[in-house]
Design brief:
The complex is a heterodimer.
Chain A (H helix, E strand, L loop, with lengths): L7 E9 L1 H10 L10 H6 L9 H16 L4 E9 L7 E13 L2 E9 L4 E10 L5
Antiparallel strand pairs in A: 1-3, 2-5, 3-4, 4-5
Chain B lengths: L1 H9 L5 E7 L6 H11 L34 H12 L4 E11 L9 E10 L3 E2 L3 E14 L2 E15 L35 H8 L4 E5 L5 E2 L14 E5 L3 E10 L11 E8 L4 E7 L11 E8 L5 E7 L8
Parallel strand pairs in B: 12-14
Antiparallel strand pairs in B: 1-3, 2-6, 3-5, 4-5, 5-6, 7-8, 7-9, 10-11, 10-13, 11-12, 13-14
Classes of the chains: A alpha+beta, B mainly beta.
Chain lengths: 131, 318
């Protein structure tokens, strides 16, 4: 695959369902109540359960490898969180190739939802030949 | 006093957060499958006889799960207790930075240690005031370093909670919007419009009404644009409306705003229009005619703004 700096990765829309929030939390072994129990989440001042950081991390990784294919290898994923992902919302992931250095590609990923910017991230990967 | 605390907190940099941690399970196919199903990740690299684990699962192998872990180092407990004593009782995770040195495969037995890498100065954020604590975990299989996992949390004293159904800041745990950021611009409040802002502070959206000809007006003005009368009273908006027009702001970037975002011209059912944010729907899903309902969003401890939430029946999919 020919990759150039400035390439834009097609956006991926992710429906934030309650099932996704809970399945992501449990699959990542994160049993914080705010990620699965709406009643306890409300008692802590949150309007509902919300996605945990491990799920966001996994979705950012998936978004990039979905685009570049199974032959690339993730080297680094760095994310910063902003607005929470609540059930009923939609997160739209967008990505841009920032830099290429030999077989190493750096991608900037952003995920926006109805509340604002949920995640800002940088993903570094290498193509299969270099792996 | 505060300075003294900062010095005490700094002393924890370089001390251990977790010592001798062990993954509860070796890397294994069922956990990989559950993760991939949850994430919707169909990458063939994660299935079959030569499967590797998704690299972003790195932290998962170190999690204590429902029954917890008991390998936290005393230094880390002490640091958290110091912060609790300073009133910083809430915690949110803000950043995760992972580096993968080699792929993990079913059968790999995970061990890990974590060090307190840095403790910030006291910072004021949208959530409240507190300290960022960064830990770095080294993940090993045997003696081999297979990945590093840097995690930043904010331990903070919560700012005042919102009074109403506004978007609430998330509570204490693994998520968060605490970037330090400039605050939104303040509204210009003067003798002509102070009643409007006084209404907002009581969660009432007030529309001016001409006493002589009953024409409604918004935004607030000294006189009636229909008959010129200076006499007025107010009516409270029902809060129902629709998107009359909108733009999506991509550029320029203003401090305190994260483009892209939608700015709507909202037509209230009373017939007047006002400019405000449309929330509850991605900015590219805002449409003319979309029904919206008023709510009040707290931006910081001083500022609350009327915004309009897209109602479910109005959300256009795809």
């Amino acid at each position: 695959m020919k990759v150039e700096a400035g390439d834009v990765i097609p956006p991926l829309e992710i429906e934030i369902t309650r099932t996704l929030v809970v399945a992501g939390a449990i699959a990542s072994r994160d049993y914080q109540d705010v990620h699965h129990d709406p009643e306890l989440a409300r008692r802590r001042g949150s309007p509902d359960v919300f996605m945990n950081i491990l799920t966001t991390n996994g979705l950012v990784g998936r978004y990039v490898t979905d685009h570049f294919g199974p032959d690339v290898v993730l080297r680094k994923v760095a994310i910063r969180l902003g607005a929470p992902n609540y059930p009923g919302d939609t997160m739209v992931l967008t990505g841009t190739v920032e830099a290429i250095d030999g077989a190493t590609v750096t991608v900037k990923v952003i995920g926006d939802n109805g509340v604002g910017r949920h995640v800002t991230g940088t993903v570094t990967l290498t193509s299969g030949e270099a792996a | 006093m505060v300075e003294d605390l900062s010095v005490r907190l700094k002393a924890y940099e370089g001390r251990p957060a977790v010592l001798g941690g062990r993954g509860k399970d070796p890397v294994n196919a069922p956990m990989i499958r559950h993760w991939c199903e949850a994430m919707g990740d169909t990458n063939p690299a994660y299935t079959g006889p030569d499967a590797v684990a998704p690299p972003t699962m790195l932290q998962v192998w170190t999690m204590g799960g429902l029954s917890g872990h008991e390998t936290r180092a005393p230094a880390y407990d002490e640091l958290l207790a110091l912060l609790d004593d300073a009133g910083c009782t809430s915690v949110v995770a803000t950043d995760c930075e992972q580096e993968y040195l080699r792929a993990l495969r079913p059968g790999d037995e995970i061990t890990f240690d974590s060090v307190i890498e840095s403790v910030s100065e006291r910072k004021t954020t949208r959530l409240g005031s507190g300290y960022f604590v960064t830990t770095r975990m080294d993940v090993r299989v045997g003696d081999e370093l297979v990945g590093t996992h840097r995690f930043r949390i904010l331990k903070y004293a919560p700012a005042h909670a919102p009074r109403t159904p506004a978007p609430t800041p998330p509570p204490s745990t693994t998520l968060a919007p605490p970037q330090e950021r400039p605050r939104r611009p303040r509204p210009v409040v003067n003798r002509d419009n102070s009643g409007f802002w006084e209404g907002i502070s009581r969660h009432r959206l007030l529309i001016q009404r001409c006493v002589d000809c009953a024409t409604l007006r918004l935004p607030w003005l000294p006189g009636c644009n229909a008959c010129g009368s200076a006499a007025w009273d107010t009516v409270e908006a029902s809060g129902e409306g629709s998107v009359y027009s909108y733009v999506v702001m991509h550029h320029p970037r203003f401090p305190a705003f994260d483009p892209p975002y939608a700015v709507g011209l909202i037509e209230l059912v009373e017939g007047v229009r006002m400019v405000s944010n449309v929330v509850g729907v991605p900015c590219d899903k805002v449409r003319i005619g979309m029904p919206v309902r008023l709510e009040f969003a707290r931006c910081d401890e001083e500022l609350e703004l009327p915004v309009f939430r897209a109602t479910r029946e109005g959300v256009v999919s795809a």
